[in-house]
Design goal:
alpha+beta; two-stranded antiparallel sheet; CBS domain Like
Length: about 230
């Protein structure tokens, strides 16, 4: 499952834009990057959290993999507003894309570098990538990616991967559809509230109702406290 959300302060963004303060670091602001890893059935989910450290979201993600996963990782991200032709004229839409690569050794001589730093508080200048030639070649190839290649719908993953790695051979697996759909529901939230005590229901009541907002899709659910009186 893939779920993600980001929040921003619209008023603050407008103020920064009006003041000409539009650098990536300023717009990124402060906060945390939290990644919840769900490896499927019969496994336990876990979460890693790091500060939004760096000038871009890319750098924050690299910090997460260095500190929480301790796996050499590099990625490229791109986002832009595209104009696509359509009936009645061009249509504006946002499009984002990215590529992530990790050092996944297959033999003992390519195992993770024993002294690879990865703990919290490692000075940035002391972090080094493995000296493995294949990994260094990959980093160089990723550096050739243009931002437009990640968001251009006419390029596609197969074409980009072939350009980067055709000399080594490329194996592309079928894609997994990503739907703009959250797993929250009124029934799920009602089930949670039904487990609340009378005091907890009373403490959760505000302006005569219980209002719950999903942290992922921001959809709000409103309940009448009287609905849970019978369960107390």
């Amino acid at each position: 499952a893939l779920r993600a959300y980001a929040r921003f302060d619209a008023d603050r963004l407008e103020a920064l834009t009006s003041a000409g303060e539009t650098s990536q670091r300023t717009l990124l602001g402060s906060g945390v990057l939290a990644l919840t890893i769900d490896q499927g059935a019969h496994t336990q989910r876990y979460q890693g959290i790091v500060q939004l450290d760096g000038e871009t979201l890319e750098e924050a993600a690299r910090t997460y993999f260095r500190q929480s996963e301790q796996t050499p990782t590099d990625l490229r991200l791109s986002v832009a507003k595209l104009l696509t032709p359509g009936i009645g004229g061009a249509r504006e839409q946002w499009r984002a894309g990215g590529i992530l690569a990790q050092f996944l050794p297959q033999s003992p001589e390519r195992m993770r570098v024993p002294d690879l730093p990865g703990g919290d508080g490692d000075p940035r200048e002391e972090i080094h990538d493995p000296a493995d030639n294949s990994w260094q070649e990959l980093l160089a190839l990723l550096g050739t990616i243009e931002p437009t290649e990640l968001i251009d719908p006419t390029i596609g993953a197969e074409r980009l991967l072939y350009r980067l790695f055709h000399e080594h051979g490329v194996r592309v697996f079928g894609g997994v559809p990503v739907a703009d759909q959250c797993s929250c529901s009124r029934e799920k939230i009602r089930g949670i509230l039904e487990g609340f005590s009378a005091d907890e229901i009373r403490d959760s009541t505000e302006d005569g109702g219980i209002h719950v907002a999903c942290e992922f899709c921001s959809k709000q659910y409103d309940f009448d406290p009287a609905e849970f009186a019978a369960a107390q």
